[in-house]
Specification:
- This protein is α+β, with helices and mostly antiparallel strands.
- 34% of the residues lie in helices and 21% in strands.
- The strands form five sheets. A seven-stranded antiparallel β-sheet has the order 18-17-14-15-16-13-19. It has a five-stranded parallel β-sheet with strand order 7-3-2-11-21, covered by helices on one side. Strands 1-10-9-8 form a four-stranded mixed β-sheet, with no helix packed on it.
- Strand 15 and strand 16 form a beta hairpin.
- The structure holds flavin-adenine dinucleotide (FAD).
- Flavin-adenine dinucleotide (FAD) binds next to helix 1, helix 2 and helix 14.
- Flavin-adenine dinucleotide binds next to helix 1, helix 2 and helix 14.
């Protein structure tokens, strides 16, 4: 048994940053992880290049964290994306900005980011124990007192930081172990659900796989509630799969499917694709009319090739009730209008999403009502801190979750070290 000022459980981005912030303030720190490697999920984020943060301003960052992003205002005020960039540049990791503010290491290698973080943790003298699952947090006399490992060994500390992540991609070590420890301290754990996850549809044309593998570039995907109200829309790229839709905008829309399902007690949720988000319906209709007039003797299915994704043409024409072999001059006006409407709003049904294990990010977690936003300390158990995805916070991919993890990790580490100092003095 050994004693530390601060114990951090979990060596993902939030836990590693918590160690650094605490050790930089002179605290003796123990980091325990159950895996053999630290930062495993960070190492596969951003397509294996590690999307370290996002360069957008704070309001925009928060807008891209639809799962309780506002809780982060306080943490972001003190340590935010600018600090994350300065931190990595200070460690010699040059960063570059890509589309939508996404920041990556110039090396394009996540390992450079993980190695720099772990290197800094070691340089500061943190004691690291890997391959050691923590079994429970020890609470004594209404206060945090330490941890017990699965092996039975115990370590004492007045400050323990839970940084165990969510439940997505469990092979990286995030298996939801932190929730029962928080519950044992009296915390509410909100229901967990998959976010940033592919969407499932039972449409016959999905089951027949006729569009499988087709990517749509720069379209708009929207989610609709049963009252006909648009809940959310995202613009960008998407992909048809053998079970539904995936790709960046499908992932972003996925959490809203569950929201509609729950709110309206329904399974099926309508989605719509706008193939021409920059054009009004009138402009799409006149472009269509123009193309048909240019090629009066051609079959309609051939006249629109090159303008509309070719593999979608038979499906879209059949939805508009048009036989693709009809020559352009034979298409009635009403059918042209109906077809233009479908190009602007091609509706199909989703029946859910893929599982939490397959999700990039876990929705739900330790309720924020019982956590101090300025310090990340529990409002219920003195000396217990939280950071990262174990909390009920989730953002879009694009560096937003990682920014939240680093910022809350820094805040928790700093305040845990300050609290520990009061016990030393
Ligand atoms: C494929 C993929 C791509 C992603 N891409 C992006 C992206 O581009 N942008 C973005 O913002 N986010 C992305 N994310 C999400 C982001 O990686 C996570 O939100 C972030 O890693 C969460 O950090 P964390 O420190 O809270 O937890 P984690 O990174 O999950 O780390 C938790 C750590 O706790 C350890 N642990 C768990 N239980 C125990 C225990 N009992 N004892 C000891 N240790 C334990 C685990 O071994 C693990 O090391 C992606 C996720 C995935 C899966």
């Amino acid at each position: 048994m050994s004693h530390y000022d601060v114990i951090v459980v979990g060596g993902g981005p939030s836990g590693l940053m918590a160690c650094i912030a605490a050790a930089e303030r002179g605290a003796s720190v123990l980091l325990v992880d159950k895996g053999d490697k630290l930062g495993r999920k960070l190492g596969i984020s951003g397509g294996g290049r590690c999307n370290v943060t996002n360069a957008k301003d704070i309001d925009e960052l928060i807008a891209h964290i639809p799962g309780n992003g506002r809780f982060l205002y306080s943490s972001f005020q003190h340590w935010n994306n600018r600090d994350i960039m300065a931190f990595f540049e200070g460690l010699g990791i040059a960063l570059k900005e890509e589309d939508n503010g996404r920041m990556f290491p110039v090396s394009d290698k996540a390992s450079s980011v993980v190695n720099a973080l772990v290197g800094r943790v070691k340089e500061l003298g943190t004691k690291i124990i890997t391959n050691s699952p923590v079994e429970r947090i020890i609470y004594k006399d209404g206060k945090t007192a330490g941890i017990e490992l699965k092996s039975g060994a115990t370590h004492t500390s007045p400050c323990v930081i839970i940084a165990t992540g969510g439940q997505s991609v469990p092979q990286t070590g995030s298996t939801g172990d932190g929730y029962p420890w928080a519950a044992a301290a009296g915390h509410t754990i909100t229901e967990r659900y998959p976010t940033e996850v592919p969407i499932v549809s039972t449409e016959t044309w999905i089951a027949s796989k006729e569009l499988q593998g087709l990517s749509l570039r720069d379209v708009e995907l929207s989610v609709w509630n049963p009252k006909g109200k648009r809940v959310i829309a995202h613009r960008g790229d998407m992909l048809f799969t053998h079970f539904g839709v995936s790709g960046p905008i499908a992932l972003r829309c996925s959490q809203f499917i569950r929201q509609v399902q729950r709110k309206f007690d329904t399974v099926n949720v309508d989605l719509a694709i706008d193939l021409f988000p920059d054009l009004s319906i009138g402009a799409v209709e006149s472009e269509l009319r123009h193309r048909l007039e240019q090629e009066p003797r051609k079959a309609v299915k051939n006249a629109i090739k090159g303008w509309i994704p070719e593999r979608m043409i038979p499906l879209l024409l059949s939805k508009a009730g048009i036989d693709g072999d009809t020559i352009c001059s034979g298409i009635p006006k009403a059918s042209i209008s109906a077809f233009a409407s479908i190009l602007k709003k091609f509706v199909f049904r989703a029946c859910g999403t893929r599982s939490l294990k397959e999700a990039f990010v876990t929705g739900g977690g330790v309720s924020l009502k019982e956590i101090q936003p300025k310090t990340m300390e529990s409002k219920l158990m003195p000396g217990l801190f939280f950071c990262g995805e174990v909390m009920d916070i989730h953002g879009y991919t694009g560096g937003y979750n990682i920014t939240a993890a680093f910022s809350t990790g820094y805040t928790a580490g700093k305040h845990a070290a300050e609290l520990a100092a009061t016990f030393r003095n």
